[in-house]
Design brief:
Distance between the termini of chain A: 25 Å
CATH class of the largest domain in chain A: Alpha Beta
Number of domains of chain A: 2
Oligomer: homodimer
Shape of chain A: globular
Helix content of chain A: 40-55%
Low-confidence stretches of chain A: none
CATH topology of the largest domain in chain A: Aldehyde Dehydrogenase, Chain A, domain 1
Structural class of chain A: alpha/beta
GO molecular function (chains A, B): L-glutamate gamma-semialdehyde dehydrogenase activity
Largest interface: A-B, 63 and 63 residues
Pfam family, one (chains A, B): Aldedh
InterPro entries (chains A, B): Ald_DH/histidinol_DH, Ald_DH_C, Ald_DH_N, Aldehyde_DH_dom, PaaN_2, Proline_metab_enzyme
Protein name (chains A, B): Aldehyde dehydrogenase
Mean pLDDT of chain A: 97
CATH superfamily of the largest domain in chain A: Aldehyde Dehydrogenase, Chain A, domain 1
Radius of gyration of chain A: 25 Å
Number of helices of chain A: 20
Strand content of chain A: 15-25%
Strand order of the largest sheet of chain A: 16-19-20-13-12-21-22
Keywords (chains A, B): NAD, Oxidoreductase
Chain lengths: 555, 555
């Protein structure tokens, strides 16, 4: 008999499995924060729920014994959140996770997937609550917090569950192996197969997209039968705390130990992630963060499957365009969106010294740069509108990088501080653009995370593309954007993308940004360059989270 | 248009894809070396082809520039083979492989799979030739050389190709992403996806099952578009040299650079494998061999996906039986087959001190041990018959281990030397059984590869199973066999198997041995205990051998 939660969500699951093969546009989670979709009271309830967490203890029914309280989150808009999470010792977390595993690992694929899908259904209903939590930890503007932190993150989670199910469903539970023996009776061996999860999955989160980047690993591990410990970034705990709370409610209602999913919050600066990651019981690690931390995990946690998304250097190559206005508008928004604090935000813009061809005629190098600068100025002219996509600077490290970048190369466009009409505390900055030469590779081959872009003048697009290939091979990238009307250059760009193993976006002049990556269609990361060792999501992202144990017996 | 080789073999491929999901008995490659199946002249032609290699240079048309000759193979039956393979420098191999990759990686999944399947079709026709090569390098008897070295190895190869195709076929080549915009026109992005292989796949072979253990990695890498360098064990080059020769013929006929598949032969003792494995261009490594070498690769070759099959400690737990004669006969053959030189051969036999229940009444511990010893004596009484399953000892290291084991614990059954009626040089030995106590874990928790078994007297089967769980978790195993008529003990055995992540064989008293692992049905290894970090085969074995690069453009 099917698990009731599996049965309840099976139709959706089948659609998702179809979607990952079809890869057209599909989502079950509407991205519009509209009362028509989410209910007339959803917005107010979400805000109220968020506000109820502020200045209070955040506990999880059924949680293990805590050894104190932690909490150091600050809203980039309003200052300290003063939420106090339980502090669990590493041994406590591991023991609780292992105890919870006993029943969970026996429950089987349909239960794992059914529970995962019910958690997602409830997360979707709480999209407003999570949006406020994302906004007031990451500094994203509200609309992005809702979309990227809510429905789009849920999409990425469902996508991971769909991949997991596709693999799990391909393994039969039993078969008769009947080998003919000529005139004699056949040899018959009865076989059964059982999916065995690896152990504890550890999800190490980031402070900019805690749900969008955290959900794939969480749901991939959970839907393949592992227990999960979520170690959010100390600066962005609440979105994952709410997620864990909801997951635990579903688990408990379904008769499982809620400690199947645990939150491991820490005070900023405490080394909880590495202590957990080094434990032999931790068999899967999903990490989003710095190159340094990611490489430490890869090198030191060989007991575990380690999936990392680290730093990268995203690039735009401008060769020619059929729509210069669209190009500048699109690039301006790509650079401005959430103050460049996206792992997919472009940083380096290569422009040929001789300028580019457009439908309006040839434009000089200076014309191209001026066009982009003008587009950013226009886009950010009205503070009230600008803050709705710029968001706020998440942490002082980003601001420090921005200030350091103001001394690099030559000025092209200064970053401006914008006063937020509603939140006087918020640090809002427009994109900085500096000009570099191709010789400045020590600068432009490094990630400068934040509202920082470089224009690099090249001899021609061939040189631009050659530099991109080297840079991505050596330093990684999650996005690569090319503007060209020339078929040969487009082909060469595809070749570069394939050689360096990075996704290519061609001639993005309309309403989609290179920063954006849609679940069920866009692979986020390729797993083939240093920016990430896995893609979100594909079979490789899920297939090693479980193993199969066979029993065979004579019939 | 489909690649002609893909079209030619598509029906077989579809059957194989069905078989990996069904997991009943299936094979397209008959295991009987019969003239009715393989043709009246196949046996003679195979022998003649094998003999033509002896004492001669073995070259590959189209090979890169060689820097000399290597060759140190000895037949365990007839002595030095005196085959001289070309020596290629590491730089030469890497450069040739990368040059060959240019066209191969662009050819796409249908070409990769079609070429792989054509190679397999031709390998099957050469099964006699390969059987002689396997026999005269590994020391397997002829029948095993034919079956395990020929059709069964081809099965494992086809299985890997089927998994690869299942993953490759799930990735669409193109889609339109059409996102509704309410009353406005939808946003349309045209997307294409291209499978990009990782780079060079390195296959590092062993000297006991060069094809059976080598083919899965070779064919998994090849059918996902990688180029492959095969580094066979210096003691068993010929079977893989013939394989590489055939692969290169197919590649050349299909219009590809034959250096897509290269043989890297070395003189015994030269460190060619590690030099190749450390190269940054090598992105996938498939290894079968010692724990020490496997762990070195895992720790040091982090630029590559590393799949290892290493040492393990395989176990039989005897609790009770419905057929004691069947039990003793089955165990005797399991121990004797190819002189225990199988990665799946049992080593430790746990027997309760109080003896076991059988249909003929209770048998004491001594009765059980005597029954097994008697079965081995009976099985090996006739030298002419015995050599047909004992085969010959592959190398002096095995003999040295056997001699060392003769001093461990207490004697239960001595190993006897058997004179081979046809090959006076062959070292043929029957299984040794020594008695240990549970306190001798330093002995029995280590692999003693060869015709060496230990009987360990335990308090009861609960103790036996507890020791097995610990041993397999810490030291790994590829096989685990339990004899019990008791439902609770069987359940506990399954629990142990799941906890330690090892395949379980229950009550093997008939014509199938625990050593045997059938492609399309039995997962060989689980990838979840220290004996192997991957299973042959599953999705995890293939999914990380390629990546997907996407191009999206505005419509």
């Amino acid at each position: 008999m099917k698990h009731p939660l599996f049965e309840q969500h099976e139709a959706l699951l089948n659609q998702a499995v179809h979607a990952i093969a079809d890869r057209g546009y599909w989502t079950p989670y509407p991205e519009v924060p509209s009362p028509k979709v989410y209910g007339e009271t959803a917005a107010d309830e979400g805000r109220a729920a968020f506000e109820s967490y502020l200045g209070a203890d955040f506990d999880f029914p059924g949680q293990p014994a805590a050894s104190g309280r932690v909490g150091s989150e600050r809203s980039p808009y309003t200052g300290a959140l003063n939420i106090r999470y339980p502090r669990f010792d590493v041994d406590t977390l591991i023991a609780a996770s292992q105890a919870a595993a006993k029943d969970w690992r026996q429950a089987g694929p349909e239960a794992w997937v059914g529970v995962s899908l019910e958690i997602l259904a409830r997360l979707n209903k709480k999209s407003f609550e999570i949006a406020h939590a994302v906004m007031h930890t990451t500094g994203q503007a509200f609309m992005m917090s809702f979309q990227a932190g809510g429905p789009h993150a849920q999409d990425r989670a469902l996508e991971a569950v769909a991949y997991a199910w596709r693999e799990l469903a391909a393994i039969p539970t039993a078969a008769s192996w009947t080998k003919p023996q000529g005139k004699h009776d056949p040899v018959v061996v009865e076989k059964t197969w059982k999916v065995v999860p690896r152990g504890i999955g550890l999800v190490i989160g980031c402070c900019t997209f805690p749900t969008w980047n955290g959900y794939p690993g969480l749901f991939a591990s959970l839907s393949t039968g592992n227990t999960v410990i979520v170690k959010p970034h100390a600066g962005a705990v609440l979105p994952m705390a709410i997620t864990v709370k909801i997951a635990r409610e579903v688990l408990a209602e379904a008769g499982f130990d809620p400690n199947v999913v645990l939150l491991a919050a820490n005070q900023s600066g405490e080394p909880l992630a590495t202590l957990l990651a080094a434990r032999p019981e931790v068999k899967v690690i999903d990490f989003t963060g710095s190159r340094q931390n990611g490489e430490w995990l890869e090198a030191n946690c060989r007991q575990a499957q380690v999936y990392t998304e680290k730093a990268g250097v995203n690039t735009i190559v401008i060769d020619s365009t059929h729509d210069f206005k669209g190009l500048t508008r699109n690039i301006a928004l790509s650079l401005a969106l959430y103050g460049g604090q996206m792992c997919t935000a472009p940083q380096n813009i290569f422009v040929p010294a001789g300028g580019i061809d457009t439908p309006e005629g040839h434009l000089s190098y200076d014309d191209v740069v001026a066009g982009i600068a003008r587009a950013i100025d226009g886009l950010t002219a009205d503070p009230a509108k600008a803050v709705e996509f710029l968001g706020a600077i998440q942490n002082p490290g980003v601001l420090a990088r921005l200030e350091a970048a103001e001394k690099l190369g030559q000025p092209l466009l200064d970053s401006r501080a914008i006063a937020h009409p509603l939140y006087p505390e918020a640090v809002v900055r427009t994109p900085l653009i500096r000009q570099l030469s191709t010789a400045d590779s020590a600068i432009y081959q490094e990630e400068h995370f934040g509202p920082i872009a470089f224009v690099i003048k090249t001899v021609d697009s061939a040189e631009s593309l050659a530099i991109v290939e080297d840079t991505v091979r050596e330093h990684g990238a999650l996005s690569f954007s090319v503007y060209s009307t020339d078929a040969a250059t487009q082909l060469r760009a595809q070749e570069v993308a394939e050689n360096a193993c990075v996704a290519l976006s061609l001639n993005f002049t309309g309403g989609v940004l290179v920063n954006q990556s849609a679940a069920f269609s866009d692979y986020h990361g390729t797993g083939g360059n240093p920016a990430a060792n896995a893609a979100l999501s594909d079979s490789a992202f899920v297939a090693n989270r479980f193993r199969v144990v066979q029993t065979r017996r004579f019939a």
